[in-house]
């Protein structure tokens, strides 16, 4: 299995095996747009996000040092107290947390007594707090401010590092896709939006950007000296870069998913560590979506924008015309030629340029070798005229 995986990686790097990430960019853009639309529709259909108590305000009860950490007794105890939604969570070994909408003083005392009876706890083991919505609003404002500063810094850094604004635009569009899709999936699960989830959303942006930088750096390396060769088009070289970094992107994603998945599925759902599931879900979904965005949104978007430039269009036409003239058969989507048996071969030499024709007319040299009867003989100082009969005179 490992040997086969290594073989596939080598074939992707040389271009013998290639996936058309750039050539099918329109299809990927359509799918991405549908995913964003669906992600925006889910919260609307569910009546918005399931905001936590930090954003809506409410009452919170904590029952500590108990042997029974089942959530069912807490839910049953709160039923006669309030008709609002009650969230009971096992936040730590021997500790239960109960959250609901704001209760008045009488309801708070009633809820505390009911929880003491449900978990066989004393009054010292049950504490109650009221959390106002202003804290959550402050967290939201700081999150939006941090996100705006992050995006501005990323745009400037990528524009300076790669010396092209097109890569910056492609990266920012991809990050928007990551945030929108992750938020939609998070909303579909019904999980509460907590400050921990917000931290998870901001964390996945950094992860997605790291993967994008790796791929774009390889793209820049491959397209350097593009116009000095006539074998591969711009799109093929960009696609080769994506395929060359594909194994690395997948390995990085798996390494990130394994510990986060362990926290989400084993820690949160099996062991009941509810305080970790919000941030774990945001990270788990974000890592996957971030990898998808790099491969199917950001790199194809840059290839599409740069590929429409006049110099790239002219070079692509020239390369394709030379392929027909050189009778090159099959070429992979990464620009690697293959023979009839599907094995990698080399490009045939370019055709010899035709000699330039000299359109200038040759200069003719006119030489006068003799004349007949051009002048009458004349006298010089009274002497006899020269006798021209013996030979021609050249003037």
From TrEMBL:
InterPro entries: SecD/SecF_arch_bac (IPR022813), SecD/SecF_bac (IPR022645), SecD/SecF_CS (IPR022646), SecD_SecF_C (IPR048634), SecF_bac (IPR005665). It comes from Nesterenkonia halobia. Residues 353-364 have a biased composition (Acidic residues). The keyword Transmembrane helix applies. SUPFAM superfamilies: Multidrug efflux transporter AcrB transmembrane domain. Part of the Sec protein translocase complex. Interacts with the SecYEG preprotein conducting channel. SecDF uses the proton motive force (PMF) to complete protein translocation after the ATP-dependent function of SecA. Belongs to the SecD/SecF family. SecF subfamily. It is a multi-pass membrane protein. HAMAP family: SecF_B. Keywords: Cell membrane, Membrane, Protein transport, Translocation, Transmembrane, Transmembrane helix, Transport. The keyword Manganese does not apply. Its main location: membrane. Residues 330-395 are annotated as: Disordered. Residues 116-306 form the Protein export membrane protein SecD/SecF C-terminal domain. The chain crosses the membrane at residues 27-45, 143-162, 169-187, 193-210, 254-273, 279-299. NCBIfam families: transloc_SecF. Forms a complex with SecD. Part of the essential Sec protein translocation apparatus which comprises SecA, SecYEG and auxiliary proteins SecDF. Other proteins may also be involved. It is found in: Cell membrane. It comes from the Bacteria. This is Protein-export membrane protein SecF.
């Amino acid at each position: 299995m490992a040997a086969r995986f290594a073989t596939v990686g080598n074939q992707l790097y040389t271009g013998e095996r290639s996936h058309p990430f750039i050539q099918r960019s329109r299809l990927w853009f359509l799918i991405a747009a549908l995913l964003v639309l669906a992600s925006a529709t889910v919260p609307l259909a569910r009546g918005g996000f399931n905001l936590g108590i930090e954003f809506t305000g409410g009452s919170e009860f904590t029952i500590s040092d108990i042997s029974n950490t089942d959530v069912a007794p807490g839910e049953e105890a709160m039923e006669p107290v309030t008709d609002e939604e009650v969230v009971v969570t096992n936040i730590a070994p021997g500790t239960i947390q109960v959250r609901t909408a704001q209760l008045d003083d009488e309801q708070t005392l009633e809820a505390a007594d009911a929880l003491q009876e449900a978990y066989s706890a004393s009054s010292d083991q049950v504490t109650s707090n009221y959390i106002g919505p202003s804290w959550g609003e402050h967290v939201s404002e700081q999150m939006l401010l941090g996100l705006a500063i992050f995006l501005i810094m990323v745009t400037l850094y990528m524009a300076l590092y790669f010396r092209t604004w097109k890569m910056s635009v492609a990266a920012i569009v991809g990050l928007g896709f990551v945030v929108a899709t992750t938020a939609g999936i998070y909303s579909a699960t019904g999980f509460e939006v907590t400050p921990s989830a917000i931290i998870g959303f901001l964390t996945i942006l950094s992860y997605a950007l790291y993967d994008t930088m790796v791929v774009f750096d390889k793209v820049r390396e491959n397209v350097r000296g593009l116009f000095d060769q006539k074998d591969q088009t711009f799109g093929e070289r960009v696609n080769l870069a994506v395929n060359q970094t594909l194994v690395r992107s997948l390995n990085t994603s798996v390494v990130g998913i394994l510990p986060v998945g362990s926290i989400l599925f084993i820690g949160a759902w099996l062991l009941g560590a509810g305080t970790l599931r919000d941030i774990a879900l945001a990270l788990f979904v974000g890592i996957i979506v971030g990898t998808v965005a790099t491969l199917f949104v950001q790199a194809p978007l840059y290839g599409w924008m740069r590929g429409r430039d006049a110099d790239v269009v002219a070079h692509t036409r020239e390369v394709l015309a030379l392929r027909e003239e050189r009778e090159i058969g099959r070429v992979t989507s990464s620009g690697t030629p293959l023979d009839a048996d599907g094995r990698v071969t080399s490009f045939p030499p370019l055709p010899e340029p035709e000699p330039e024709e000299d359109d200038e007319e040759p200069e003719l040299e006119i030489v006068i070798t003799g004349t007949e009867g051009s002048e009458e003989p004349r006298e010089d100082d009274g002497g006899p005229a020269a006798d021209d009969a013996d030979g021609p005179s050249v003037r």
